[in-house]
Amino acid sequence: MLHRDTVDTTVLPPGERFGMWLDLVARTSAPLRIQSAHTGDFAARADFLDLGPIQLVEYRYPSLDATRTRKLVRQSDPELYVLALTTGGVGTSSQDGRRSEIQAGEFTFYDASRPHDVCHHATEPGRTQASSIITLIPHAALPLPPQRMAALYGGRMSGSEGVGALLAQFLLQVSGHPEQYHAADAGRLGAVGLDLATTMLGRHLVAEDAVPTEVRHRALVSQVQAYVHRHVGDPALSPRVVADAHHISLRSLHRLFEAEETTVASYIRDMRLTRCRRDLSDPALRTQPVQAIAARWGFPDKAHFSRAFRAAYGISPQAYRESTANPARIVNRPASMVNVSRAD
Length: 344
What we know:
By secondary structure, the protein is of the alpha+beta class. Among the domains are: 4-162 and 171-178, Jelly Rolls, CATH 2.60.120.10; 286-343, no CATH class. The chain has helices at residues 14-27, 70-75, 162-176, 186-204, 213-231, 239-245, 250-256, 264-280, 290-296, 302-313, 317-325, 335-343, and strands at 4-8, 33-35, 45-51, 54-61, 63-68, 80-88, 90-95, 98-102, 106-111, 116-121, 130-138, 155-158. Helix 4 (186-204) packs across helix 5. The two termini are 19 Å apart. Keywords: DNA-binding, Transcription, Transcription regulation. Residues 222-323 form the HTH araC/xylS-type domain.
């Protein structure tokens, strides 16, 4: 499981909570001067995830007004960019003369090596908390022209469309469910997050040519895979549909997958089979007909599904379902089938 460090002020009496938060902020690589209207009871939490090239921090608090002054920058310069996704509440971001109001579902971007102001308040005081997911990106890790990044400071970017939506989904998934990943996945997850962030920032610079080709390639593969995951139950899903949805030619889509050691059609089929196999082994779905499950995941033809499932797993769908319901029966099967069952 990914290692997560947590700071939770509610372990202390209400009167001591804001002081605990001040200590936390003072120890960060980019200290801030902070104020809050809730100093008497600052119920807050911070969760830290180290993903190799980037770090994620999920924050929750009632309200916060923060300033990074020139003096604080001189005292500590971490050379970090900050990409913040607001997930709850409303805030403002100001840097280099640019000021934006940030709503839930939007990103803002700034440089921790320059003075800036950030305000973040819950929209319903006393009933909900302000929340955000912060991505800390070292200057050296972002493969975009540093001299052009100032155009984005203090601005806002959508987290509900295009690459921004994919990045927001990625951040919410990883920060919300670290238990679903192995510690060894951290570096790869960080690389995926960095690629998506780079692509989103590059597009907002109206300078996609500034994004390295390899980064654009990996980000587009992630977009395509996410699209397949969302539409895998549609029997009409095909490489052509996927290509059209991403405004690229079918030939370009096939070239995109050459380095993935699979074809687009195979990726769609394997994803459908994985979903079917999962549902066939689910006790809660035991009364559902095999064909109903197959149809749900894009296999309307019973014979075609049976052939594809047997080719992939060496066992018929019905026999696989029975083996998961009665594990003891696997002992009497050929060794190849025993291995298939254990692989699940």
